[in-house]
């Protein structure tokens, strides 16, 4: 496609893919319109009904881009922004996307991204309010930058309040987004050493990165002190950034992190730490041990729920098996993909 704006006809086609018909949207996406408009008093009702609450409603806002190679950038953009919205207890309401494509992109590439956004928004009752799309020589690969609005009644807002003695709970398999990307991008080379059925299982695991429903249900059930979706930097980076900024310490046990057997085999082969690989779809929760036990009772093979650590005084630091954990650095998926590309296992 030519650099600059989309053609008028293509723009009119894209804006028809507008997600769910959420209550309260007055002006949604439309060619030639510069802004979106919604009625706050109508828009907040779904959150109040979900929690059966008549308290005042808070607005929650989030932005996040998709820059890593993924099989469905549009879908992932909706999910990662929704995941962060729900960690506050909020129901995702509406989404905007800025899509920047390189000049060698095809119309099919653009439509696949927009279809992914549209389908995932419809699946989760999220409206698409608008956005921006252009073709630019400034990028080498497609960039999808999302922005999400959500609503939560004040009595169900997750306040990021924790105490010494609370425990950290991990919900879902660790490194799932990372293994999905690695297995997809490096399938042919990895298949020379790892069974294709196992790689297919990892690709499938990587598709399941949404925490929307489980985070909202957990919040409704126990009102945790803190929730956090593990993304870049992996589950270990997520543990660190969650606790360090709150001025507490944390003791972690590596044996408790849930990893599938296929995940362990992949990272053992690559000699990369799975705890430092992007892990969207893995939910961290800090709560009392009593409430945590209510959650672990529901642990299953599909969604493991485990206590992985305990909150301690800041002076004790953040430790894994007794050793201090360093602040998160560049995601280990970069190293994994480089090793596959170079064949340096």
Descriptive account of the structure:
The chain has about 350 residues and is of the alpha+beta class. The protein folds into 2 domains: about 150 residues, PurM-like, N-terminal domain (60s Ribosomal Protein L30, Chain: A); about 180 residues, Phosphoribosyl-aminoimidazole Synthetase, Chain A, domain 2 (Alpha-Beta Complex). The strands form 3 sheets. The chain has a 7-stranded mixed beta sheet with strand order 9-11-8-12-10-13-14, with helices on both faces. α4 runs parallel beside α5 and α6 packs across α8. The radius of gyration is 21 Å and the shape is globular.
Strand-helix topology:
Layout lengths: L3 E2 L2 H7 L10 E3 L9 E2 L1 H4 L1 H7 L5 E10 L6 H14 L4 E11 L5 H17 L3 E9 L7 E11 L13 E5 L4 H10 L1 H4 L5 H12 L4 H11 L3 E5 L3 H11 L4 E4 L8 H10 L11 E6 L1 H8 L8 E8 L5 E3 L2 E2 L8 H10 L3
Parallel strand pairs: 5-6, 10-13
Antiparallel strand pairs: 1-6, 2-3, 4-7, 5-7, 8-11, 8-12, 9-11, 10-12, 13-14
Helix pairs in contact: 4-5, 6-8
Please give a quick description of this structure.
The chain has 13 helices and 14 strands.
Total strands: the figure is 14
How many domains? The number is 2
Class derived from helix and strand content = alpha+beta
Tell me which CATH architecture of the largest domain applies here. Answer: Alpha-Beta Complex
Radius of gyration: 21 Å
Would you give the CATH topology of the largest domain? Answer: Phosphoribosyl-aminoimidazole Synthetase, Chain A, domain 2
Return the string of H and E elements. Answer: EHEEHHEHEHEEEHHHHEHEHEHEEEH
| Adjacency order of strands in the biggest sheet | 9-11-8-12-10-13-14
Q: How can the largest sheet be summarized? A: 7 strands, mixed
Name of the top-level CATH class of the largest domain: Alpha Beta
Helical content stands at 25-40%
Gap between N and C termini: 38 Å
- Number of alpha- plus pi-helical segments: 13
């Amino acid at each position: 496609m030519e650099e600059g704006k989309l053609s008028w006809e293509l723009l009119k086609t894209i804006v028809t893919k507008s997600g769910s018909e959420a209550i309260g949207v007055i002006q949604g996406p439309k060619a030639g319109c510069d802004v979106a408009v919604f009625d706050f008093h109508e828009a907040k009702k779904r959150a109040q009904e979900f929690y059966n609450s008549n308290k005042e409603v808070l607005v929650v806002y989030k932005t996040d881009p998709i820059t890593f190679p993924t099989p469905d950038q549009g879908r992932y953009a909706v999910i990662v922004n929704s995941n962060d919205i729900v960690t506050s207890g909020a129901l995702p309401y509406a989404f905007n996307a800025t899509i920047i494509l390189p000049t060698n992109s095809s119309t099919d590439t653009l439509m696949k991204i927009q279809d992914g956004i549209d389908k995932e928004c419809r699946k989760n009752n999220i409206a698409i309010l608008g956005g921006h799309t252009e073709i630019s020589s400034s990028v080498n690969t497609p960039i999808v930058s999302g922005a999400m609005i959500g609503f939560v009644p004040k009595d169900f807002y997750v306040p990021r309040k924790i105490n010494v003695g609370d425990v950290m709970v991990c919900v879902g398999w660790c490194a799932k987004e990372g293994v999905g990307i690695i297995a997809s991008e490096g399938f042919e080379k990895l298949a020379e050493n790892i069974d294709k059925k196992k790689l297919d299982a990892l690709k499938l695991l990587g598709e399941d990165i949404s925490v929307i429903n489980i985070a909202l249900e957990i919040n409704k059930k126990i009102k945790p002190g803190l929730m956090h979706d593990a993304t870049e930097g992996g589950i270990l980076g997520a543990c660190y950034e969650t606790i360090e900024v709150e001025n507490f310490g944390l003791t972690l046990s590596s044996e408790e992190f849930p990893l599938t057997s296929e995940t362990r085999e992949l990272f053992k082969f690559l000699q990369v730490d799975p705890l430092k690989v992007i892990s969207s779809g893995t939910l961290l929760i800090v709560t009392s041990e009593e409430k945590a036990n209510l959650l672990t009772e529901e642990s299953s093979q599909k969604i493991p729920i485990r206590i992985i650590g305990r909150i301690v005084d800041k002076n004790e630091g953040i430790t894994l098996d007794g050793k201090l954990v360093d602040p998160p650095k560049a995601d280990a998926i970069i190293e994994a993909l480089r090793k596959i590309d170079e064949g340096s296992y």
